[in-house]
Amino acid sequence: MDERRPQDGRQPEATEEEQQQSPVANQAREFLARFQKGIKSIALYRHDATAWPRYLEPARQALTEVFQDHQQLPLAVEQGRLLVQGVTVYQQPPSDQNLAFLLYRDGIRLLTFRSGTSSKELVDLALAFLREPEVRRDGQDMVSLLWQQDFKHIDYVVVDSFALGKSEDEEARQDIDKIVTYLVSRLSGSQRDGHRYARVSLDDVELEVTDVQQASGVVLGADIAGEEQRLQIQKEIEQFDRHLLARRTGQLLLEVLQEELAADLAEPLLEAFGRLFDTHLLNEDLDSLHQLFQGLQALDGQALSAQSQAWAASFRQILRERLGEPATIDRLGDILEKRIDQATYRRIFGYLVSLGSESLENLLNTLERLNRSEARRLFCEVLVQLGRDHTQAFASRLLSAKANMVRDMLFVLEKLSPPELLTLKARLLRHPNLAIRLEAIKSMARSNDLAAGNHLVRALKDEDAQIRATAARLLASFDPALAQGSLLDAARQEDFCERPDREQVAVFSALSQIDSPQVASFLRQTLHSSSLLGRKRLEQTKKNLLAGMVDSASLAAFRLLRAELAAGLKPAELSRQAQRACERLKERLLRSQEQDK
Q1: What percentage of the chain has pLDDT greater than the value 70?
Q2: In 3D, which of 33, 30, 32, 5 has the Cα closest to residue 19?
Q3: What is the pLDDT, as a whole number, of residue 6?
Q4: pLDDT tens string 377-428
Q5: What is the rounded distance in angstroms from the CA atom of residue 171 to the CA atom of residue 181?
Q6: What's the CA gap between 60 and 67, in Å, rounded?
Q7: d(CA 283, CA 294)
């Protein structure tokens, strides 16, 4: 047991002897301290991806100092600490904040940084540590996260668990430690792919590991997987191999393109890039697709022959055109229908915005068949970016029979705000879909164009009661002066008492929001009116009037109702109804004042 192990989670201080014997350990200790500090900064400012490399720059500089004297920095992993040459350089109590514990828990026993480790690789490694507690809930682990990264200068060794017969005494554990140490040394090396091609037999262990009494009893410990688990693992391995193979193929093609090639190889190379493009799309591997474009773009800054530069530019343009094809846009839409995480959102948005206005028709066709609201909104945002000078393409789809499509076009047009926007919205008042007509009325009421009031007034005479009721409610807040005359005219119609209760309530509610003598006189007259022929119908209209006054939550309506109660209302039933309405109206006004505070 390490007697210097701290109990408060701080990094262990190196003894004077360790500092003299292992200067690389001191450098590693400084690197790890800066690295963990950078991880904490990224966790705090995770929304600002552009700042991540800056947070890890001190760690990268510390690592560069190590590489001045050494080609690599191997870190042996134990449950709560990391060691270099047997010296503890990082130690904390086991937890999800302990880097060593996160590695050790999933079987990683050696983590090696080799000369050339880039800032991007450090960022990717930091994100893996941050995501590990999150993805563990989904059945993934640290090894899976590291597999997903394209590390070129960071290696890791995963060692399965060991069992040594049934012995669990200290001597047995020491024997296991010796075996693991030998396996780690065998699986690590200075070559890039050393750990990939290492093979260890039991005879090797018996020959190389000394002072181990029961080496022949060493076995790999594992739980027997069920059929379902085996099929799942097989599927994941196949997917991983397919993605890895496609990504590696792209790297090889880019390397080939940097060589002096015969002119007749242009067409085969283009076909290879095209098939790789299709493979990434089918695999839904947007990261690899992005790397392919980035790789072709990066060739511009390299010292290549004029032919290679021309080929790279031509291939990049052709693949960019492939992005705008209907099948490609449909495929990107399918991906959005399945997942809408921020990384996928940003990647696809970048692709689609880069297409240009010539792809508007293809984008609209794909949008029309999408169902997921987040996916549709992304496409709409792209259309806003690309369609500023092509509003007619959106206007032509306003009369679509699909309500979602009409709403999307209305969203895009409102964002673009063309001069004819109000006229385009007015067309929707003739749309056969009631929901679309209601949306058009609400949209016009949200505008700052006073001419929209005329359309709302005309909507008061629509054949549908719901349209008339909605127009009445919106008109009062849009333009009270225009609303007063229009609403009074509507309420004085001979057939008004025969109209649906909902429409009457809406008209009375809108009138109650207008504080004017003419409106107050009309409301008072309606409360006191009488009729021998249509008494029941008139009583219902008065109930609707009281309901409309309550619905308005208007102070003017409260004062009017209280004054009429004080003066006396007949019959007694109407007076009781008015009293209840006045109390409810008072409650709403008080609640509104409290919310305003």
Answers
A1: 79
A2: 30
A3: 44
A4: 999 999 999 998 899 999 989 888 888 999 999 999 999 989 898 888 888 8
A5: 15
A6: 11
A7: 19
**Cα distance between residue 214 and residue 222, in whole Å:** 20
Buried b (16+ CB within 10 A) or exposed e, 562-577: eebeeeebeeeebeeb
SS3 of 321-390: HHHCCHHHHHHHHHHHHHCCCHHHHHHHHHHHHCCCHHHHHHHHHHHHHCCCHHHHHHHHHHHHHHCCCC
- Whose tokens are 């200068």? That residue is 153
C-alpha distances out from residue 74 to 4, 105, 159, 188, Å? 22, 18, 15, 9
User: What's the mean pLDDT in 452-478?
Assistant: 90
Helix (H, G, I), strand (E, B) or coil at 112: strand
State how far the Cα of 282 lies from the Cα of 334, in Å rounded to an integer. 10
Taking the C-alpha atoms of residue 18 and residue 84, their distance in angstroms, rounded to an integer, is 11
Percent residues over pLDDT 90 in the chain: 28
Q: Which residue has the tokens 């408060």?
A: 8
B/e letters for 238-255, b = 16+ CB within 10 Å, e = fewer, are eeeeebeebbebbeebbe
SS3 percent helix, strand, coil of the chain, rounded to 5, is: 70, 5, 25
H-helix or E-strand spanning residue 111? strand 108-114
| 225-248 per-position pLDDT tens digit | 556 655 665 555 555 555 566 667
pTM beyond 0.85, yes or no? no
